[in-house]
């Protein structure tokens, strides 16, 4: 009897546990629904098409980051948008609003990302559309580097010992500037850069996370974020450039002032002074830890890599043309074909999700099993 009950318990657990790929597919299905609903929303409300990206990334960001500072950095969404998404979910039996709840997810290539964090980074970038005038550094790598500085600000030692301490205790480690945040900081600007080339964010993520090297993640991040570092081949150049960018960023300086690492001016922390002497080495150490990671994972663009990059671009262009052709075919299709494609879309969306019929079969099996157990024992 005990063996049978254990077997039944295992079956039930097996039924309810989802694989990593199933979870990832569910996330993308919810993301597709969200983007579809927001497209409908901006059409109904007569918003411009250019507001689509902002409403998507800002809506997702609000799942975890709602402070006044984040409102300043990433903007807001219309008061009725969240209610609109919820009503669409109820109407269509979908779960688009869950996009605000997804945190750590594992992608098909094995990467771990913080989903909401990554979209928050995108929100900070697109809100100003320029790395020189907005909060892009602060909401991504810069803000997490400042957190790393906070973690080591009371640690004593010379520069190299502080770097080692930060690496061994807080960098890419849970509880500090962890791996999920690092990957999300790198991927945010990259995924956003593909927005005009694909139909939606879900398609971008399918493409981007399909390969292990992610189109050379660090290289792409540096090209987008730190163009002055492209083809730099020495560690000191990386350290100096990143330190200059970090220390000159107005919003990062305000944050350091609010955390007590800079003195305030006559307008408070809105006119921050230089870093306090006792935190100079800690600040350099925090920045250098991030800089060294980028340097160690960066590859200069040789002639051979140029050729490979051209091949990748040609493949991307072919993908874009295929997407455009598919879109044209979709527009010209008759009603019957539209219906068929809708069914296929639903099948793809539900990949990894258990259907009602599956549940019916599964629980009937368990029901028969229990009857069998009753009559035998």
Model description:
The protein is an all-alpha fold and 377 residues long. It has one domain (17-300). 66% of the residues lie in helices and 2% in strands. The protein contains 17 helices and 2 strands. It has helices at residues 2-16, 20-44, 51-61, 68-74, 81-92, 115-126, 136-152, 159-169, 179-193, 201-208, 217-225, 235-248, 250-258, 280-297, 303-332, 335-349, 356-376, and strands at residues 104-106, 112-114. It has a two-stranded antiparallel sheet with strand order 1-2. A hairpin with a 5-residue loop joins strand 1 and strand 2 (112-114). The chain is globular, with a radius of gyration of 25 Å.
Quick recap of the structure?
With 377 residues, the chain is mostly helical. It is built from 17 helices and two strands. The radius of gyration is 25 Å and the shape is globular.
């Amino acid at each position: 009897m005990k063996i049978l009950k254990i077997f039944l318990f295992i079956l039930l657990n097996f039924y309810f546990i989802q694989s990593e790929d199933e979870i990832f597919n569910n996330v993308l299905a919810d993301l597709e629904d969200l983007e579809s609903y927001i497209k409908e929303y901006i059409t109904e409300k007569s918003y411009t098409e250019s507001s689509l990206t902002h409403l998507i990334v800002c809506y997702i960001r609000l799942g975890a980051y709602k402070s006044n500072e984040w409102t300043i950095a990433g903007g807001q969404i219309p008061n009725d948008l969240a209610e609109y998404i919820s009503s669409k979910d109820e109407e269509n039996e979908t779960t688009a609003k869950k996009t605000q709840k997804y945190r750590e997810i594992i992608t098909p290539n094995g990467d771990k990302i913080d989903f909401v964090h990554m979209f928050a980074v995108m929100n900070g970038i697109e809100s100003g559309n320029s790395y020189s005038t907005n909060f892009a550094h602060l909401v991504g790598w810069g803000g997490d580097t400042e957190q790393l500085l906070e973690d080591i600000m009371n640690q004593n030692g010379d520069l190299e010992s502080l770097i080692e301490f930060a690496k061994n205790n807080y960098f890419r480690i849970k509880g500090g500037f962890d791996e999920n945040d690092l990957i999300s900081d790198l991927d945010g600007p990259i995924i956003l850069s593909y927005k005009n080339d694909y139909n939606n964010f879900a398609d971008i993520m399918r493409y981007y996370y399909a390969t292990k090297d992610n189109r050379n993640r660090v290289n792409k991040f540096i090209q987008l974020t730190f163009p002055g570092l492209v083809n730099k081949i020495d560690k000191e150049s990386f350290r100096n450039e990143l330190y200059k960018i970090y220390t000159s960023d107005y919003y990062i300086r305000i944050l350091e002032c609010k955390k007590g690492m800079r003195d305030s001016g006559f307008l408070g922390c809105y006119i921050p002074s230089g870093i306090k002497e006792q935190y100079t080495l800690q600040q350099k150490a925090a920045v250098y830890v991030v800089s060294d990671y980028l340097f160690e994972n960066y590859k200069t663009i040789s002639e051979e890599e140029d050729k490979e990059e051209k091949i990748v671009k040609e493949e991307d262009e072919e993908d874009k043309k295929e997407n455009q052709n598919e879109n044209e075919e979709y527009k010209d299709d008759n009603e019957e074909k539209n219906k068929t494609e809708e069914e296929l879309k639903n099948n793809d969306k539900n990949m990894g999700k258990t259907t009602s019929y599956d549940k019916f079969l599964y629980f009937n099996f368990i029901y028969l099993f229990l009857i069998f157990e009753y009559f035998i024992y």
